[in-house]
Amino acid sequence: MLGAARDVLARGRRAVAAENQALRLLADLAGLPAGAGGCFVSGGSLGNLSALVVARDTAAARGVGTPQGRPLVAVSEEAHSSIAGPSTSSGPMRSWSPRWTTA
């Protein structure tokens, strides 16, 4: 059993290494700095939520916001429903409370 666990750990490390290489390649292609990072997620909704969390935390760290102190999130009218849902009063980002506008 211990040998099987070691094998799983080894495969996990290889998968993480491959993911990191792919992320570095994408960051390089996008012209991002060496310290840029990321992760792959299983779907669009999780990806959108992850992006909103990063935007929220980055805006807070930079002290960015509208004159009302709330960030403004611009989305198209065709934006996926997972974009607005996380920031509603019942969503996981309810303390953020951004203003929404369509671009």
Describe the structure.
This protein has 3 helices and 2 strands. With 103 residues, the protein is mainly α. It is elongated.
Sequence-ordered SSE layout with sheet pairings:
Elements: H1 2-29, H2 44-62, E1 72-75, H3 81-84, E2 99-102
Brief digest:
This protein is mainly α and 103 residues long. Helix content is 50%, strand content 8%.
Largest sheet: 2 strands, parallel
Task: Please list the strands of the largest sheet in the order they lie side by side.
Answer: 1-2
Outline the low-pLDDT stretches.
none
User: What is the oligomer described by this structure?
Assistant: single chain
Helix percentage? 40-55%
How are helices and strands ordered from N to C? HHEHE
Indicate the overall shape: elongated
